[in-house]
Amino acid sequence: MDLDLDGRLRRLMGFRVVMVTTLLFVQTWVESVSETLWATNPVYFVIGATYAITVVHGLALRFLRPLKLLAYAQVVVDLVVITALVYFTSGIRSGFLLLYPLAILAATLLVSRRGAVALAGLATALYAGLMIAVRSGQIWHPALADLRGAPVGALVYPIFVLGVACATVALLGSYLSESLRHTGRQLLEATEEVADLRELNQVIVDSIQSGLVTTDAQARVLHVNAFGQRVLGRPAAAIRGARVQEIFRSPLLEPGELRSRAGDRTLARLELAYDHPEGRRLDLGVTVTPLANSATSAGYLVVFQDLTEIRRLEDEVRTKEKLAAVGEMAAQLAHEIRNPLGSIRGSAQVLMGEPALGEEQARLLEIISRESKRLSDTLNRFLYQARTPARRHEAVDLRPVVESAVTLLRNASDLSPGHTVIFEADAGPHVCLADADQIAQVFWNLARNALEAMPGGGRLEVRLLRTETDVVLAVRDEGRGLGRDEQRRVFEPFQSATGGRGGLGLAIVFRIVREHGGDISVRSAPHAGTQVEVRIPVVAPGPPAAAAGASRAISRRGTPSSSRRTPGRTGVGSARVTA
User: Fold this and answer.
1) Domain limit, last residue, from 186, 219, 246
2) At what angle do helices 398-410 and 436-452 cross, to 10 degrees?
3) Which of the residues 228, 386, 490, 539 could staple to 330 if both were Cys, CB 3.0 to 4.6 A apart?
4) Contact 344, 368 (CB under 8 A)
């Protein structure tokens, strides 16, 4: 309220300066064309005094409070100045009588209705006092000589008219001023409410954990919320104005498709694959609804969610269910086969001890015993899927374990002359709670799958890295790669693809990594190779040691080669299983 009154007082002072300056120019022009000139025109004193009073008002407005008293003071001084002008300019015939109602009108903008009426009474009293004083001879001016001795009725009428005019202006002006202030307050409240609602709406839209895209009727993007920008990996400036099918790169969101889906609730929900600018492929769930006014479609609302993690968890659940099925099958096999198998092998060994056994018979019994043992080993591999072995985890440095396995691999019969094995490791330390034999088995299963994917030869890269929380074992090949559907099923038992991938090897790897509380991920694309990363938690999480100059490489022939870091990118698709 004080700030509002302060502004109105400042505007009143500006208006006063304009009026007085205009009076100064008019008075100067009148004197320049008049035949009778006063030696000293008192109007100029009034004008000068008004300028001085305005300066005083400005200083008072800056340093004094309360403002309401300053408002009354300004109006009262204005009335005194107007009375002085009337005194020096012919009294009842003065044109400055019109300034009384103007001053009262200005007062209605500054004070209350009761105060404006009181100021109207003061204006009338000042004018009446001036007229009575002139008539009684208490004050005199040449321009008012005809008022001396004038009848009382000649003075009552102009005083009455001025009083009615000032009172009317005070009442009407106060009513209009109060209405204006009330309307202004309502408008301000409405503006603040709209601003609050707008801000609340924006907060709600940005807080929703779903992407929101609004479009026009031609499927051009008008708005996208902050969460949607994060999911799409693109700023709002790059999305606005583009068509929806261009953003999602899907023909399922063309304008015709949008109209069909928005008009049919059974088609409104769909799922599509989105290629993220960072090279990842996301599974998005999209819902299309119409944005409509009274009768016509104004556009579409496209709501989408990132379902990649949900699909990953579903794939993991399916993998675990299949592993459980394998375990149940292995238990049944153990029950149905193991006892008869032991009997067969035991009987064969007893017969082999007979002294009269012929050479051919001995050879056949040896075959029975050997094949029984092979079948027993196969059965044990199945049983591994069904049981949880006793934990033998201890603090193990994985670097010598992996180095030893790499050395054996480069001398193994699985390698052909066209294969090259590269190993590199940072400074570590690579200590984690693990079973060294199981970690070696993880490496061998991954390495064999990689070699099977490169039957004609290629480069096999093995990296051992330390992060703040994990030891990372990465195996990368240059083989045929995996499609998106293959990646989803890569850890399921008995899954295989061209090149020999699949079987139980990766299922066993998944089981071991899960038992170590680790994480395994696959990045691959058709004809672009495959990279598998295994992460095992370190014993004491913390910053890894400096790795400068600490890596080394071992080639197929065992001679050191130049160490180099290969980016972990292998394609647009990735399958990830978190244990």
Assistant:
1) 186
2) 40
3) 386
4) yes
